Amino acid sequence: MCKLFIDADPELWRSATHSLRIDGMVTSVRMENYFWQLLEEIAQRDGMNTAQMITRLYHESIDAGHDLGNFTSFLRVCALRYQALQLSGDIPPNMAVPIGELDAQEILSRESTLRDITLSERALHKKHVH
């Protein structure tokens, strides 16, 4: 099992710092190259470069009332969610389909339903175990 991870290209886990300007302020974000690759792919789907997409994520998160105290962690989770949504089939593999054209509310609703079912099943299992 571990060989799949250990023998992967070490460039994937090397960190890189990217500087970008958000609202006129220069900020630096340091993440592993693998996350940068995923964020670049997300941006390309919607016709943006990575800096534009990150700026948009920042603005939309602030508009939604989120505390972005650890913005780098937020970006990592965005990248992982992108992959998870691809695996679940909610984001099609066809790179020509922009993420902005997907029905986000429908996807979030489906996720919420699945989460509720999982929590109910866990509670039921826990009840039978004890």
From TrEMBL:
Pfam family, one: RHH_4
InterPro entries documented for this protein: RHH_dom, RHH_sf
Organism taxonomic ancestry: Bacteria, Pseudomonadati, Pseudomonadota, Gammaproteobacteria, Oceanospirillales
Ranges where the Ribbon-helix-helix domain occurs: 17-82
Gene3D superfamilies (UniProt xref): protein bp1543 (1.10.3990.20)
Name used for this protein in its record: Ribbon-helix-helix domain-containing protein
Taxonomy, superkingdom: Bacteria
